Amino acid sequence: MSECTKIEQKNKIIYTLDNLAPRLKQLALHIHANPELSFEEVASAAALIAPLREAGFEIEEGLGGLPTAFRATFDSGKPGPTIALLAEYDALADLGHACGHNLIGTASIAAALALKTGFPELSGRIEVIGTPAEEEGGGKIILAEKGFFDHHDAAMMFHPRDKTMVVRGGLACVDAVFKFYGKAAHAASAPQNGISALDAVIHTFVGINALRQLFTDDVRVHGIITHGGSATNIVPAYAEAKFLLRANTVKGLSTVRDKVFAAAQGAADMSGARLEIEEGLTYAERNNNLTLAEFFRQNLDALGIEVVPPPRSGGIGSSDIGNVSQITAAIHPYLRIGDVMPHTPEFAEAAGSEAGLAAMLNAAKALAMTAVDLIESPEMLRAVREEFLSWKAQN
Q1: What angle do CA 195, 200, 204 make, to 5 degrees?
Q2: Least CB-packed of 54, 179, 198, 267 within 10 Å?
Q3: Does one domain contain both 315 and 350?
Q4: Do 274 and 358 reside in the same domain of the chain?
Q5: What pLDDT is stored for residue 182 in this prediction?
Q6: Entry's Gene3D superfamilies (predicted)?
Q7: Average pLDDT, the chain
Q8: Does the reported pTM lie above 0.85?
Q9: Handedness of CA 339, 172, 226, 235 (dihedral sign)
Q10: What is the pLDDT at residue 309?
Q11: Radius of gyration of the chain (CA)
């Protein structure tokens, strides 16, 4: 295809999304106003599916046995790549959409609508994968383990942030709930008969804090007490804490995990309590496909959006797209929505602002334009795949 024709296609995408903008903004604001927690996103998933079904996408609900996961497919019937657009839509407890998933999910739906509506003749296959529980539970991990990303040539999504960056790392992480079982007793008249599960929790925090001087700089360990007892005059028979462990890689995370779990067991032993550990799924580190990220950057440039380099260190969280990026070429670029940081009330407000909605539309345009690059240029697709396969051979 000539470069001139590709530019015409991309201009059509821009035009299509500008026309769809009022409905897309309404969708994002509806999800923003009705936040749902991980694995409970019934209304949010339904709201995202509705315009895809109306546009003629083949809809599969309950994907991978997850009630709020879905796949919406447009298959042109012509040979070509299979591209995944990933949608997130779960919210945070107490904070609502303080990570902007209302924008993330809507942007992927918008990009898919622009591609099918504007170019039904495009070769290949577009799949919107609705991935629940990014915040708590790892929906992408569950779907990845069941093979739902094995056939994709590339997977893309965007994330709102305080800066526009096309490449940013992601830490490996795992969560764990430490459940301590002691023995109840009257805290005043017969404390000697009790075993304090709360003491075991407190000693766990102390032990982990003592480990911090021995962790490498990339490691983050943070926790909360989720149950500390029921009354001050009863020695707590049950107490519970939840921790999230992070490191640069899954391999490094394994070492951190062993040390933290040993600290918890030591706390149980010294307190006389019994310990049970509930370990969550492991979020893998992110493998950014630099070639694909560069194509996305070029499309942002065509939209007049300035991209800044990522910080040299710090400011990195975790996401289950890391597990997808171990399976296929993937990108997770960021678009600026204001001077706000995720997981704060200020970010939740920005995710429902005009600036947030504008970033969402620009992200949708760039996602769809990048899909056109991969579909219409075998050379560009080959470069993306070669980079991924080279990385995979070394890991």
Answers
A1: 170
A2: 54
A3: yes
A4: no
A5: 98
A6: 3.30.70.360, Zn peptidases
A7: 96
A8: yes
A9: negative
A10: 92
A11: 23
Using a pLDDT cut of 70, give the percent of the chain over it. Answer: 99
Tokens encoding 174 = 């795992």
Longest Cα–Cα distance of the chain, Å, equals 87
Task: Single out the residue of 72, 135, 141, 145 nearest to residue 101, CA to CA.
Answer: 135
> In which domain, by residue range, is 36 found?
3-169+286-393
Q: How confident is the model at residue 2 (pLDDT cuts 50, 70, 90)?
A: low
Q: Is beta strand 159-161 parallel, antiparallel or unpaired with respect to 172-181?
A: unpaired
Task: Label residue 238 by pLDDT band (50, 70, 90).
Answer: very high
pLDDT higher than threshold 90 for residue 71: yes
Q: DSSP characters for 88-118?
A: ----BTTTBSTT-HHHHHHHHHHHHHHHHHH
Cα-based angle 332, 177, 169 (whole degrees, multiple of 5): 20
The CATH number of residue 326's host domain is 3.40.630.10
Length of the chain: 395
pLDDT band at 1, cuts 50/70/90?
low
Q: Are residues 32 and 164 in the same domain?
A: yes
DSSP string, 152-178: -SEEE--EEESS-BS-----EEEEEEE
Question: End-to-end alpha-carbon separation of the chain, Å?
Answer: 35
Measured CA to CA, the distance from residue 81 to residue 102 in angstroms comes to 27
71 and 145, same structural domain?
Answer: yes
Question: Would you place residue 87 in the very low, low, confident or very high pLDDT band (cuts 50, 70, 90)?
Answer: very high
Quote the number of domains for the chain.
Answer: 2
Q: What is the pLDDT of residues 205-231, one digit of tens each?
A: 999 999 999 999 999 999 999 999 999
Tell me the average pLDDT across 287-315: 93
List alpha helices for the chain, DSSP H: 3-33, 42-54, 101-118, 139-145, 197-211, 250-271, 290-302, 321-325, 345-350, 354-376, 378-393
Classify residue 21 as left (phi > 0), alpha (psi -120 to 50) or beta.
Answer: alpha
